[in-house]
Design brief:
Blueprint: H1 2-39, E1 44-47, E2 52-55, E3 58-64, E4 68-74, H2 82-86, H3 88-95, E5 99-103, E6 108-114, E7 121-122, H4 125-132, E8 138-144, E9 147-152, E10 159-162, H5 169-184, E11 188-194, E12 209-211, H6 214-238, E13 252-258, H7 267-283, E14 285-291, H8 296-299, H9 301-306, E15 309-312, H10 318-325, E16 340-344, E17 348-352, E18 354-355, H11 358-365, H12 372-382
Parallel strand pairs: 7-18, 10-14, 10-15, 11-12, 11-13, 13-14
Antiparallel strand pairs: 1-2, 3-4, 4-6, 5-6, 8-9, 15-16, 16-17
Helix pairs in contact: 1-3, 5-11, 6-7
The protein binds adenosine-5'-triphosphate.
Length: 392
């Protein structure tokens, strides 16, 4: 009897130890969070007759996984949610460098604490097919902690890619364009301007036209401008709001410009680029612009507001990062973190861009080399208005 009681006691204390052990990370995380809220004074003060009461954010849930801890918390009414992003440094001091803060709405946040940094993501088309299926113009972003990230450019048009030299922009352009071409090159016309003469040679004979200077680019832009007018008139005549609603929709048009800042003094060019950014979406004409230094004079006003999606690779300082992203996050990416970006669509997310080596891109694109001209003839039949965009 005594022995049975002893065994029972031992078992109970074991269960107790295991339970404490399991809940410990969650309790420790709660207490660290609360300390952070106190240090940053993320609180509002209510005065009663007798005293002042401070209300801090409430921790709604702490989930502990083998590779991460997720903390869901709400800030009280009356606190500006920007204060959480401003104190990211403090959460890093408390929980380590591999954290991510996601704002769910004006009150609710998720703090994710990871054990490991995001790992390199090697490009393999077969691995991404599931993530891009059913998309009209799939833009492969990369790999976040929750998996492969991609979006449909016809839903979120006009992309800005920015980052200092060697941060991963050209590699990202290479993988985005290769994915678009490989997924369905039939419904897309691609025009590229390579003002640094560095990357787009890969797409010669595949894209509809690759140009290397402003004089050649303006010719393309004038044709696209004409096409915008023709498509606009067609929509009006057909009484539909988007080319996708036409009985026989014309192909999408993508204009990619590497190092667009070199064009800032070319008023004619910038004017048409702005026009595309303003009205291109419904007409099926989209932009991908890249630049090393986010140039405030280019990104001012209309164009900046219309570049709805941003990929910010490492930025040299917070001011530049704010021009691209509206937040200083991209300045925190280290020089060694090649291909790591802050991706802004709804909120800002850290994502590792796919690494597609030049030789592998060449292999992937080989079947499309010098085929595009024939395919374009088919477009001309289905879309008579599109003749204006053919080049010799
Ligand atoms: N997604 C990635 N994953 C791993 N390494 C990468 C990735 N992207 C780029 N790199 C590495 O970083 C180097 C520089 O990348 P990339 O040429 O794309 O930079 P960049 O921003 O275009 O530079 P620049 O503005 O000078 O042209 C690459 O040669 C490659 O070694």
């Amino acid at each position: 009897m005594l022995l049975t009681l002893k065994i029972l006691g031992l078992l109970t204390s074991c269960v107790g130890i295991i339970a404490t052990y399991r809940t410990f990370p969650s309790n420790a995380a709660r207490s660290k969070m609360f300390k952070a809220f106190k240090i940053a004074d993320i609180s509002i003060t209510k005065k009663t007759k007798k005293r002042e009461i401070k209300t801090y954010p409430t921790i709604k849930k702490v989930n502990v996984f083998s590779d991460k801890i997720i903390i869901l918390f709400n800030i009280p009414d009356g606190i500006n949610p920007d204060i959480i992003e401003k104190h990211e440094w403090l959460f890093k001091q408390k929980f380590g460098e591999h954290i991510e803060i996601t704002q769910m709405n004006s009150k609710q946040f998720i703090l994710s604490i990871y054990k490991q940094p995001i790992r390199q993501f090697d490009y393999n088309y077969d691995d991404i097919t599931n993530s891009i299926k059913n998309m009209n113009l799939p833009i492969l972003v990369g790999q976040s902690r929750s998996g492969i990230e991609a979006y449909d450019m016809t839903k979120y048009p006009h992309l800005l890619i920015a980052g200092e030299t060697g941060s991963g922009k050209s590699t990202q352009l290479r993988s985005i364009l290769s994915t678009l071409i490989h997924s369905d090159s039939n419904k897309l016309k691609i025009y590229l301007a390579d003002l640094k003469r560095s990357e787009f040679h890969l797409f010669k004979g595949i894209a509809n036209k690759v140009v290397y200077d402003a004089d050649e680019l303006i010719k393309i832009l004038r044709k696209i401008k004409k096409e915008l007018t023709t498509r606009g008139e067609l929509l009006e005549k057909s009484e539909v709001a988007n080319i996708e609603d036409l009985h026989s929709p014309p192909p999408y048009i993508l204009l990619g410009i590497d190092e667009v800042a070199l064009l800032k003094k070319e008023d004619d060019i910038m004017e048409i680029i702005e026009e595309i950014s303003a009205i291109g979406r419904a007409l099926g004409v989209y932009l991908i612009l890249s630049m090393q230094r986010p140039d405030a004079s280019i990104l001012d006003g209309k164009l900046k507001n219309n570049l709805t999606v941003r990929m910010a690779f490492r930025h040299s300082d917070e001011i530049n990062s704010r021009i691209t992203l509206g937040s200083g996050d991209a300045a925190n990416i280290k020089q060694t973190q090649k291909g790591l970006m802050c991706f802004k669509l709804d909120g800002i997310k850290k994502i590792q861009a796919p690494y597609l080596e030049l030789k592998n891109a060449k292999r992937l694109l080989a079947p499309y080399k010098n085929k595009s001209v024939e395919e374009n003839d088919q477009f001309q039949e289905s879309s008579p208005m599109f003749g204006a965009l053919e080049f010799d």
